[in-house]
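Collaborator request, handled under Task 6.
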Amino acid sequence: MDPHIYSQQLRPLPQTQYPKNSITLTRQGNFHEILQTEINSNQGIKLSKHAEKRLQERGISIDQDKWSLIQDKLSEAKLKGINDSLVVLSNAALVVNAKSNTVITALGREEANSQIFTNINGTILID
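Structure tokens returned to the collaborator:
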């Protein structure tokens, strides 16, 4: 070994001091309960302007029960790591960003039969 390489005296790195109570747990409960609370607090599917326009143009109506079911399935999909999902209903097909709970676009079911969907990493089928 070359003595010039190791001739410098090694100095310890400075220690970073963090306050002892910098991280506090604000909620009680197990991990699953806290996770479900977080998911439920962010509920509510949003429609992009594009999707809202497409739903109106195509005369697609989705009742509140279906929206609730879609939201539940999106929560499950999000837990499985799905980012963008195709939601297929009996009368429509929706492309939904699961992270932001936002419907990106909507198509009638007949129109969706002849389409190719890209950048989707999950599909939810609801009848």
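The cover message to the collaborator said: "The beta strands are 46-47, 84-88, 92-97, 102-108, 122-125. Helices lie at 31-41, 49-57, 64-79, 109-112. Please let us know whether this matches your experimental observations."
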